[in-house]
Design goal:
The complex is a heterodimer of chains A (485) and B (58). Helix content of chain A is 26%, strand content 25%. Chain A is α+β, with helices and mostly antiparallel strands and 485 residues long. The N terminus of chain A is likely disordered. The model of chain B has no long low-confidence stretch (mean pLDDT 89).
Amino acid sequence: MVKPAPAESSTNSFGADLHQFLELYEAAYPGEVVHIEKPLRAEWEITALAIKLEKAQRFPILVCHNVVVDGRRADIPLVTFLMASRLRLARTFGVEVHRAGVASYERVQKRVKPVIVSRNQAPVKQVVEKGADIDVRRFPAPLHHRMDPGRYITEGFFLSFNRNSGLDNSALQRGWLADRDEIRVFLGPSTHNAHNLRQYEETSEDMPAAYWIGHHPLALLGAATHVGPDESHYETAGGTLGAPLRLVASETLGEKFLVPADADVVIEGYMPKGQRKPEGPFGEYTRHVGPQRWCPLLKVTAVTYRKNAYWDDVMVGHTHWISSLTKEGAVAELVKHSVPGVRAVHVPMSGCGVSHVYIQMRKTVEGHGKTAAAAALSGFFDIKHAFVFDEDVDIFDEREVLLALATRFQADRGLVLLPGMNGSPLDPSAPERNVTAKAGFDCTKPLGKPFAERLAVSDEVLARIDPVKIIGEKRWEQIPVEPWG
Amino acid sequence: MADFEYVSCPKCHDKFMAGEEFFRLPQAYCHCPYCGNEFPVGVAASEASRAAGKRAGS
């Protein structure tokens, strides 16, 4: 595999919190941070804007300064699409865009211990609200899709600590702002936060917990990384950011309950033991709705935020690179242990950023294509289809990918079928929960046999012929673009 | 992912997806995402119906 430029070579990660990132990134790329002053309703209008931008393949950071919540302008602006641009994250890592996955994977392997700061050094303590002043519904969280029961925290990390070891655990887990001091939280049963809750409930105790919202994109990527139960997410966030995460004591959960000092918003509270309420339905990453669930809830005891806070949102079910970018590097790392010659890996958004993987390799031994597919399918429960291509196929261009599937794949010899595998619980087509059939597609050319050449003209002619100059700029603009061509 | 059923809200009659646990757990109740109505289904609905029948018969 070609080694990418090391991520450490980046000399500019655009600061260490969300505010520094926005300021520095906008200074470098002013066209990619869009400030919207026009009023946008929290109910579906921000999602509709995102849908249209996604369709147009444009992914600027959207800073919505006038979000209307229940008929009145929200006090703080909304930031969304922060993680929607692969190009932006590549620049933040300091690498070429196709190498962003490997750079992300390498960076999230790093660990940096957090540091503790005092309250007056913590921007997130600039505003502190308790008791009757609490109302989480005032935040400009969007109502994302039809069938969602209300407005949701989506790019918020749910934070709890292991009752026995004291280890921190942060995970992006959705929360419905159901009442002024109540957030209903979906904790997948196999998550570490659910495990932490079980520990507290087994001893008949309420679990202290919090949401932290808004931070530097690299801190978000690091904190969202799946790690073992004995590893700190604060350390992965610091390692990925390249600087220690600064932590500060909570307001209502004790001095040992530490929250990120440079977050934009922290919502503290506790999960009452044994209490459950309905949560959802909710639009999922699969671009389909997931059902209502019987879930625990966070009773809010304090809300703290910056004076100039942003509310950070991720458009779930639309383009974002939070997990897929790191997965590209992880797949490359895993597959190269089974077969040599892996050149690149792409986890495309057309597969929900999770379900499909394209592997580009130089095949030197017959069988390596199918072996690479099987390795990827076995190594990741949520990868459902793996496609393997020769190195002349541009796996970042899906027309080339589908052409190779059409012209280099024979189902009777290139198909890998793995029925009854553990799969995503959210796949709408799964025959039963957590079970799926997986398939690999070896689209590599057979070795040692003649194979038809791709159509081509000479590189010199291709470089020299400019259709705009030949047809004329005005006529060129009049010719409709046909995306189905 | 057939671990849910569509349920119809008895108040607004709109339909939404409810997980299998709402049909299994006697304490669970659904929340209509459209009108906010809360109502039992499955085991909880049967128990509520039985309790109402007892009250009516006594």
